[in-house]
Amino acid sequence: MPKSIYILGLLLYFLKCCHGRAPVFDCKVSVRPCPSNQRYDMNGERFDENTNTSDIIYTLQASDSDPGDTVAYEIAVTTALESGFVDGYYWFNVERSTGDVNFLESPNYEAENQFMITWRLLDGSLTPTIASNIKVYLNDINDEPPVFEEVLYTFYLPEDSTDGVVVDKVSATDRDSGANGEIKYSLSPDSEGLNVFEMLEDGTLIVNDSTSLDYETTVDYALEAIATDLGTPSLSANPPARIRVLIEDVNDVPPEFKHLPYSVEIPENQPEETSVITIDAIDGDKGVQDKNSILYTLINDISGHFGINNTSGDIYITRPIDKENMTGNSYTLDVQATEEITGQTNTAEVLVTILDENDNLPVFNPTNVTYNLDENTPRALIYLDMTVSDADDTGNNKFSFTLEGGNGTFKLNKPGMEYTSETTVVLVAVELLDFEAGATSISVKVIATEAQNKSRQSFGDVVIQIIDLNDNYPEFANETYQAYIPEDAVAGAHVITIVATDKDALTKYITYGIIGTGLDNTCFNVFEHTGMVTVSGECEFDIEEGKSSYFFTYQAKDDGGLASTVLLEISLTDVNDNHPVHVSTTPESPTIPESQNGQFKKTHVAIIQFTDADNDENTNGRVEYSMNGSSIFRINETTGRIYQTEDADFETKKSYEFLVIAEDKGTPSLSSNISITIEVEDVNDNAPIFINSTYEGEVNETAGNGEFILTVIATDADSLQNQQIDYAWLSSGDGISKFSVDQINGNVIKNGELDWDKGPTEYNLTVIAKDRGEPPLNGTCIVRIKVLDTNDEAPVLKEEVVDIREDANVSEIVTVIKANDSDTNSKLEYGILLVEAFNDLGAQVKDYHNDHFKLENSTGELMLTHALDQEVVQEYQLTVQVEDLNSITGPQKDSATIKINVLDVPDEQPKFREKDDPPVIERVAIVEDVEGERHNDSCITNVSLASDKDENDPIFYFIVDGNEECVFHLENSTGCVTVVKSVNRETAANYTLIVKASNNMYYKNGQKCPAEESSGARILEATDPVFDPETDPTLIQVAIQIVDVNDNPPVFSPDVYTAGASSTYNYGTSIIQLVAKDEDVGVNAEMEYEIVEEAYYIDDVRQETIKKYFAVDKKTGWITLSSIFNSEDEGYFELDVIVVGTGNLIDKASVSIYLMNPSIHQVKVVFVKASDVVYNEREEFTKLLLEGTNYVINIDETKVHLDEYDVPDTTRTDMRIHGVNATINSVIESRQLIRAIDEAYTIYADLKNTFRVMQVVKAVPDPDPVFDTLNALQWFFFTLSLLLIFILSLWAIAFVFWRSSLQRKLRVANAEIYRKPKDIHKEKLPNTNLYQQEGSNPLYKTGLIEKNNRVHAEADKSSVDETWKNSDEGIDTLKTNEVEDAKNDNSYKDLAIILNDYDQSVGIDNPGNDIKVHDNKDAEDLEVTDV
Questions:
Q1: Does the CA dihedral 55-57-59-60 come out positive or negative?
Q2: H or E element: which one contains 1099?
């Protein structure tokens, strides 16, 4: 029998057996036996706090002996035992008729957990009867999870922390009690750095692995803390606490090189100090606030070509590099960066590649070469021992040859060919060369020209030596030769040298001789190798004997045996053997006068005569004259006459001495000479000349007559009497009478009385110097004599009367005593000889006046040293003396009496108010000056408001404070205040003057202005008293307000603006705010903004627009968007904006607004600074970026940074910007701007340190590029996949509906368990007979009962039979199906009726009991139970 049917039978049996018993007290939920008495207490009963409000916790039942009375149940009062709160119906509810007690609201242990319920009974009389008290206790259920006190914890940890160091602690609370409220902490397995940190159970976070702490690797860790209570089941905090551990950098990392690797290419031959590359290293500790300065050194530059600036890291050239002298193409340098404080170092390798420059010409080796070539050699190649190479690298070493010279005799072997390696020069001989034709050697120039630069050439010189062959006879220059020898020629005398030439250079020598025989051949010798013919000495020559000529055959033979001959004639000549002889000089001692201007040119001076004994018929007896050693004389070569050709100056040269030479015309010529002296006679042609044009001297006015002053000196270049000089004054006058000049020596002396005081103090005289020549000549000079003052005058003092108030301050200057002294070098000293004091009766006061005054001996200042009392002394008489200390005539003194009257001072000072009255403030308003116009002299106010109880005492007014700029003037006696300088409200809007009233017209503490320097007032010093009108009634405060005039226009600052706009902006979006300022105030400062022109440009070409896109707020200056852009719009707008102030004062500004796309153009900059700080620094930031990138930077947005959890981080700020290339008026892409910022090395330090920029990225990240890169085939498979997914989804939905249908059929089959065993016919249930057994699966049609397959099939076939529908089995089955339908429809009431009908149908008689249905949500089927 099935288990469920058995249980159902037992329950029905129990209900039937117990029905009809007498009512008794029933307590369904009580865990203790129910009491049987009427009155009872249930104390300490406990219920879980999660008890449902529908659960009956008690059932109160009472009986009444009165027949027909019913008992009603009611709660009288409920008391919360812990809080004492009393309420009748707050926590519990009692069903009035049944006594069922349940919770009115869900109980909460954490709110109240102990209750006392007092309930009462009511019978038919409605008289309440207190029945009992019930105590209810709640059991704490672990229903409250822990809650962290903070959602996000931020901890800071130095990176050098060791293991076990406590980072910080987290804390959570749990409202539960006991173990349910105890919390233990741990880290989530998903936390970053789980191996680095450990969390103790008490929430303390400690370092677990300090080796992993490295600021340079990880700046912060994101941890997740879990708080779990100890309840069952345990609960955890949700959400968990996020912990952010920020690692604080410490100085433990060596310097870090930026922009590695370092590699640079530089041309060779760079000059010294040329920058190669700048090495940039930073402190490796990125988070340390106090950064180390980095020092740079080179540690392996063995080349010696490089140096480094140890502070900037700039590597530079120390000596030029020649690539051709390098062993490779590059240098590898090691740069060491050292932190200045910590000494930590790091090295970086720098590869410097040297680029070849075309700095080497092709080089000939050697540059000169000689090649020997036999004459008559046929056409041949000439390989010269000469190579050419270019030391430059490939590309710069290509060259070609050309040939210059040689007259076309030679040419290059391969003209026009280009070479790159060492090449031998090869020439070609074009034609046969004949040595005798003059081609003994041919010079050609080989030119190597660079292919890259035709102007760069080098040259090689080639000499082709033509080798001679002996194919030519010796040749004489003449066909015959004739020689002459004197008749007295001696042996060895040279006669003639005859040589022949041989065109053959191969011929080494030629031999000469006389051929033939005869007696005459013995008279002469021929030198075999030189061809020189000499007299042999074997013959005597004599013309008179009749033989004057000799004839010979002369032969020349080369060393190859080839000979030639020529005729030689030798003739005899007469011999010249007598010298010329001097006969006379007329006159014997010649003289000439000195001359000027060519007066004596060509003047006859003398005649010289020589004779020659040789025969006059030929040249041997003819004499010619010449001179040697004279510059101004000439001689006639035939007559011997000497004459003068230039002026002679006696003062230059007094005589001339020279040689006269007489030479005959014989061969060889013979000569004689004689020395001649000509004297120059002097002429008076030079005037005296003074050494100085002006002479200056000094003489004391008291010097005696004859006192030497100075000497004048003149010189004369003439001689004798022409040279003698006499001195005298040139003219007469007063000065001449006081001085004299010596006629002979030129001494000037004092000769009269001088008085400096009467004058003159200087004399200017003229001296003439005259020589004694005929006619006499003269010269002049100026003599300036200065008369020196002598201290010979006595100083003079005058008597003086001085008034002084008795309240004069000690150290006050009473007067300044001045003596007159006409001397310029006087030194005066003052002193007091006698002080006398007198009272008002004229009587002298004794023993009172000794030290009341002090006289400064050098300046004459008389100072008061003690306070005065007019009642005691009314007058002082001081006898004052002055002495000239520089007097040279003895003591020079004078004295005078100084009378000092002491003036009485009243006892009462003038006051503006009584002491207890409030301070007086005089208020006045004046209009500021327009364009600097000065106010007139009228009073702006009058402060003569003081009163003095001393009626006759005058009152004077002084400005003592507030007039430092001397803008105002106060007339001391009248109190009139005037404006003396222009006032400008924009410079000073208010002035506050403090005015002092005093009886003392010399009051010293008044502020002094330049115009008042003589008034006795002076400028306020730092040590002067502070004047306070609050406490001093002698002071008044004058408050002067400057009234504004509309004299300033509004001014834009700046006057050029740039901004950006996007198609993503909505209507009314604020673009940029223009700011103008007006220095005026009030209505004068009111202004309005207006756009006067809006121009739209694309590619700098203005476009026509229909609508206006921008508007400006007239008051705030905010430019807003008035029309929406399309995403395709591009270009920029130029706005001309004016600001109009009061009085139509205008300023202009230009605004450039560029259209940009945030996803393309915007860049996000993240600052480690608060947003307000970043906003205040925005202008400096954009200026820095402009400096580094040359792009105009526009700020689009500034806001608080959101972290990875989208939690605002107020310590960081996000700024969105875009850049504009102002040159082409175009917005640049974000990647280009980021790259420009990255490459702006000069601003890197400021970005990092000053502005603390943490990140520069695209504002809108690039989209996932997957779909952008799909090709056609990939798109096909992607679409096919989506189609398959759609089909599978449809199949799954159909599958679910099919499964639900089959489940329904299965549940109907299970319903047959409620039938009687005898009525169960499994095969008769429609559509279910195949899958009714346990283990069957109607979804997959598996697990079928094989033995009943046939029966089931037949039953399926017959289940639609109409007869079966009307049978008992059919009715039962239909009812069971209705149960299932009711369950699906949640129609529990109908279900109960159906089941009651079913009870009757199965024969269960159960009057008065209902069937209840409970829905077990965890089971698929309804459970039908009998309660």
A1: negative
A2: none
Handedness of CA 389, 392, 395, 401 (dihedral sign): negative
DSSP codes, 946-1003:
-B-SSTTS--EEEEEES-TT--EEE-TTT-EEEE-S---TTT-SEEEEEEEEES-TT-
Q: Number of C-alpha atoms within 13 angstroms, CB side, residue 565?
A: 8
> Is the separation of the CB atoms in 1275 and 1267 below 8 Å?
no
CA 887, chain centre distance (Å) = 71
DSSP secondary structure code for residue 236 in this structure? B
Q: Give residue-wise pLDDT tens across range 210-250.
A: 888 888 788 889 999 999 999 888 889 988 999 999 888 88
Report the alpha-carbon angle 1358-1360-1361, nearest 5: 70
For β-strands 275-278 and 314-317, DSSP reports them as antiparallel
Pairing of strands 892-903, 800-805: parallel
Whether 7 has a pLDDT exceeding 80, the answer reads no
Rounded-to-integer distance, Cα 1356 and Cα 363, Å: 116
CB contact at 8 A, 1173 and 1252: no
- In 1163-1243 the beta strands, taken as DSSP E runs, fall at 1163-1167, 1192-1202, 1208-1221, 1226-1227
Cα(1349)–Cα(1243) distance, rounded to whole angstroms?
91
3-class SS string, 1166-1178: EECCCHHHHHHCH
Alpha carbon distance 568, 512 (integer Å): 13
CA distances (Å), 1316 to each of 7, 584, 1368, 1403, 1405, in order? Answer: 14, 200, 12, 9, 15
Dist. CA 931–CA 929, nearest whole Å: 6
Phi, psi of 1205, deg, nearest 5: -100, 10
DSSP, collapsed to helix, strand or coil, labels residue 741 as: strand
Cα 1245 from Cα 311, distance rounded (Å):
14
Q: How far is CA 474 from CA 512, 513, 556, 560, 566, in A?
A: 11, 13, 7, 10, 11
Predicted confidence (pLDDT) per residue in 65-111, tens digit: 777 677 888 887 777 777 767 665 568 888 888 888 888 888 888 77
Is-cis flag, bond preceding 239, omega within 30? yes
1153 to 155, 1134, 1195: CA distances (angstroms): 45, 7, 12
Contact between 1072 and 1059 (Cβ < 8 Å) = yes
* Longest CA–CA separation in the chain, Å: 223
Q: In which order are the strands placed within the sheet that holds 694-700?
A: 694-700, 778-788, 762-771, 725-729
> Which residues, in sequence order, are bridge partners of residue 178?
none
Phi, psi of 1380 (to 5 degrees): -60, -45
Q: Which helix (H) or strand (E) holds 1374?
A: helix 1368-1384
Measure the CA–CA gap between 662 and 1278, rounded to whole angstroms: 133
Distance, CA of 519 to CA of 427 (rounded, Å): 61
Phi, psi for residue 177 in degrees, rounded to 5: -115, 170
Dist CA 596 CA 686 (whole Å): 12
Site of tokens 């005859």:
498
Tokens of 202: 């008490």
Exposed e or buried b for every residue in 669-678, given b needs 16+ CB within 10 A?
bbebbeebeb
- 911 within 8 A of 946, measured Cβ to Cβ: yes
Burial zone of 1104 (CB within 10 Å; 0-12 exposed, 13-18 middle, 19+ buried): exposed
Lowest mean pLDDT among 150-154, 894-898, 929-933, 1419-1423: 1419-1423
**Cβ proximity of 143 and 111 under 8 Å:** no
Integer Cα distance of 781 and 803 in angstroms: 62
CA 1229 from centre of chain: 25
